[in-house]
Design goal:
Length: about 180
């Protein structure tokens, strides 16, 4: 399995066990950016019906209130512990995005790589960001490092599933095989 780790925070962000798709805008994939559709899942003890009728056998039928629905990627126990969503205006996020791009560029250069691929995908993302920001939520990783983020997108598929589609910049992640 491959874990994708944020270059800035060191947080685990997603793994290859989740199906990923390229982020598309106006019918074309934005190179270097992929999405993962999260799901709402049941978390908590699982009840197995053995066919016995507990009330007829003198026992009480118990209802377990600890079972909850959670987003499989956001949850801290079964997912990656994203914090949020956070509240940003488009202007505030634009400033954060610019700072984040510079920080990622620096991290890529520090490891001896060229940031060209990252800078191209960040630039290609801007028209999408401008058009779709109102449909997005901003999250931070588990460490709550505010210098880094992951975006949740509420498009038609996400609305149908009831959970956001998360957007990842592949050049801004380190792959670690576990």
């Amino acid at each position: 399995m491959i874990i994708y780790i944020d270059l800035i925070s060191g947080d685990e962000m997603v793994s290859d066990s989740y199906p990923k798709k390229p982020l598309e805008f106006n019918g074309e994939a934005i190179p270097g950016i992929f999405t993962v559709q999260s799901q709402m899942v049941t978390k908590g003890p699982i009840s197995v019906n053995t066919g016995a009728n507990a009330s007829a056998e003198g026992g009480d039928e118990e209802v377990d209130d600890s079972v909850v629905k959670v987003c499989n990627l956001k949850d801290g126990e079964i997912g990656f512990g994203y914090e949020g969503p956070q509240t940003y205006t488009a202007g505030e996020f634009g400033t954060s995005f610019k700072s984040w791009c510079q920080a990622i560029k620096g991290k890529i250069e520090a490891r001896g790589d060229k940031p060209k691929e990252f800078m191209q995908c960040a630039k290609a993302f801007l028209p999408f960001l401008k058009e779709k920001f109102g449909d997005m939520e901003v999250y931070h990783g588990k460490s709550y490092n505010v210098e880094s983020f992951v975006l949740g997108l509420w498009d038609d598929e996400a609305n149908e599933v009831g959970a956001p589609k998360f957007i990842f910049f592949e050049p801004a992640l380190k792959k670690e095989k576990v």
